[in-house]
Amino acid sequence: MTRRSPFLAAALLTLIAPHVAKAQVPVALRAAARARNLAVAQADTATWNKLTSDSFTVVFPWGQFMKAQRSAEIAHQQPFANPPLQHERFQAVGNAFLHRYEIQNGAFLEVWVRERGACRVATVQATALDPDSAAVQQAITAANTRFVDAFKRGDAATLTANYTDDAVLMPPNMTAWEGRAGISQGFTTFLSQFNLVDARLATKDVIRSGDYAIERGTYTWTLHPKTGTGADIVDSGKYLTVWQLQEDGSWKIARDINNSDRPPSM
Residues 115, 158: one domain? Predict the structure, then answer.
């Protein structure tokens, strides 16, 4: 006998299940849905496990996971700001509810059931939404603005947070900074030697390919040495940055390289 996928069944039900007005959605269900999404953002596995069925299955574009696998993944992720839900809808299906919404670049379909007297999620289907190039470039521009601001403040922790855990930063005239630890040490050392007086980043183009975006741009900056009596260092050059789309819809840097336009000193 052929078994029907629970996600196919849920998708079919969305075609026949009536839309539920906001006033008709049980208060406990709406509160549970908010708490569960917040638990993911805060890496709060205790709350997430409480609101998730023991037989839970989630399907992401990159694979299918059971409850234990997904719980472990949440426990090891970095907390992030809980993004707002867009186009949120609830649909009643017998004694269950379908919860549909979008978060930035993803669409989600949750099946909520009553289990042991509480609301819990039985299955989730996640679908990636391909944002247009203008939206990607806007996100990168905003990230670059925050990056420059953190550089001016000498905030090595915020600078490092712009990179993925396995990122590689390749500055000129020195060895690469690899991984979060290497990048953190690199920025900490650099900021102990220089203050960033001013900086300008200009994106020339962005090439999108799946979960990656390749940014080509130019920079100008002025550095002030913290020791000695040396003059400020004024430099301009170009950079190539590979951005990777994250699960929460944000973009972080996976690979980063830059070099100066100034001729080498003889």
Answer: no
Amino acid present at 146: R
Q: Of the candidates 111, 108, 106, which has an alpha carbon nearest to the alpha carbon of residue 123?
A: 111
Burial (CB count <10 Å: 0-12, 13-18, 19+), residue 218: middle
d(CA 8, CA 222): 57
Which residue's structure tokens are 């819990």? 120
Is residue 115 over pLDDT 80?
Answer: yes
Last residue of a domain, one of 128, 155, 190: 128
pTM for the predicted model, two decimal places: 0.56
Q: From CA 18, how far away is CA 94, in angstroms rounded?
A: 10
- The string of pLDDT tens digits covering residues 216-262 is 999 999 999 998 777 999 999 999 999 998 877 889 999 999 999 98
Contacts of 247 (CB under 8 A, 6+ apart): 77
Strand order in the sheet with 86-93: 63-66, 52-60, 118-128, 106-115, 96-103, 86-93
Q: Contact at 8 Å (CB) between 240 and 232?
A: no
The Cα 143–Cα 148 span in angstroms is: 9
Q: What's the rounded Cα separation, in Å, for the pair 124 and 35?
A: 16
203 and 99 in a single domain? The answer is: no
Determine how many CB atoms are found less than 10 A away from the CB of residue 65: 17
